Amino acid sequence: MFRFVQLVTAAALIAGVLQPPHASAQDTQLTVFAAASLKNALDEVDAAFTEATGIKVMVSYESSSTLVKQIDQGAQADVFISADLQWMDYASEHKLIKPDTRFNLLGNRLVLIAPKASKIDKVEIGQGFDLAKLVGDGRIAVANVKTVPAGRYAKAALEKLDAWTAAEPKLAQAENVRATLALVARVKTAVGIVYETDAKVEPKVKIVGVFPDGSYPAVTYPVAQTADSKNAATASYLTFLRTNAAKAIFDKYGFNYLIKPGS
């Protein structure tokens, strides 16, 4: 009973802190543009935010490059969450975000996956790693290596490990990391390169190798309010992302939480 009272009290305190000024929670919603790899975890975070505040969250998930270009072309969003620093820097340079609201929220790791029933297993990834030989006549699923963060991280890793030249002709490039994951899950490719958190939410794939730290830039998810947002609920949402409640959810899905929770 005491524990129940504690939880109710905590929820009430969060709701009080997060309640936007001069706005009715029941009549308020906000729009978030978020990297595709965040879907499962962020859906749960948003549900917790809505439960605490009554504010509905509408989310558009896509590659960071697609989302920032949509914002640049006038799409209405209150919050942008990128899967790399480069596209958030682009947003900042083009005055698409409010710089003083920006912070780095999460980290992730790059892994090699294969279909669950694949004979490929326990791959040691290091310098001179011959990915092309590993897949034989098969294909390698990756996100677009020119524009999508997951694809750019993958290319950087393969170049660093001297595996790019041989692997490039065998790439099957997808529009975002979740589409990459789907190619492997449907056994359309022999392997794929995705984030660790993506692999963990898809039961039809298995992690067969982990790319070593330092072989690609640190995977970082920055967050910011968009420049055109005048939604009073946005500040409350950004505050909620910094709470222990949000951290617990992101931790559960395997993300590296980069900031100290505020409450």
UniProtKB/TrEMBL annotation:
It holds the Pfam family SBP_bac_11. Keywords: Metal-binding, Molybdenum, Signal. This is Hypothetical ABC transporter molybdenum-binding protein. It comes from uncultured prokaryote AT5. The keyword Metal-binding applies. GO terms for molecular function: metal ion binding; molybdate ion binding. InterPro entries: ModA, ModA/WtpA. One of its GO terms (biological process) is molybdate ion transport. SUPFAM superfamilies: Periplasmic binding protein-like II. The keyword Iron does not apply.
